[in-house]
Amino acid sequence: MSPEPASPAAYLEAPSRPKRTRFQEFWRLFRRNRMALAGLAVFALFFVMAVIGLALTSGSRPLLDPARVRLPEKLLPPLSTPHHPLLAPGEEPVLGVYLCGTDDLGRDVFARMLQGAWVSLTVGFVAVGISVAIGIVMGGLAGFYGQRRIRLEQLLVTAVLLAGAGILAAGRRPLGAAVLIIGHAWLFWSISPWGLRRRRALPAGLGFLRRDTLMVDTLIMRFVDIMLCFPSFFLILTVVALLPASIYTIMIVIGLTSWEGTARFVRAEFLALREQDFVAAARALGVSNLRIIFRHMVPNAVAPVLVSATIGIASAILTEAGLSFLGFGVPPPHATWGNILSDGKRFIFDAPWLTFIPGAAILIVVLSFNLFGEGLRDILNPRSRERN
Amino acid sequence: MLAFIGRSVIQKIVTLFFVSVVSFAIIHIAPGEPSQVDPLNPKFTPEMVQRFRQAFHLDRPLYEQYALFYRDLLSGRTLSWKDSQPVLAKIWERFLNSLPLFVVGTLITWTVSFPVGVRSAIFRGGLYDRSATLISYVLISIPGFFFAYLLIIFAVNRFQVPVIGIQTFGLTEAPWLFRLNDRLWHLLLPSLLGATGGIAVLSRYVRSQMLEVESQDYVRTARAKGLPWEMVHYKHALRNALLPFVTMFGLILPGLIGGSVIIESIFSWPGLGRLAYEAILARDYPVILTINFIAAVLVLAGTFVSDLLYVIVDPRIRL
Question: What ipTM, to 2 d.p.?
Answer without folding.
Answer: 0.85
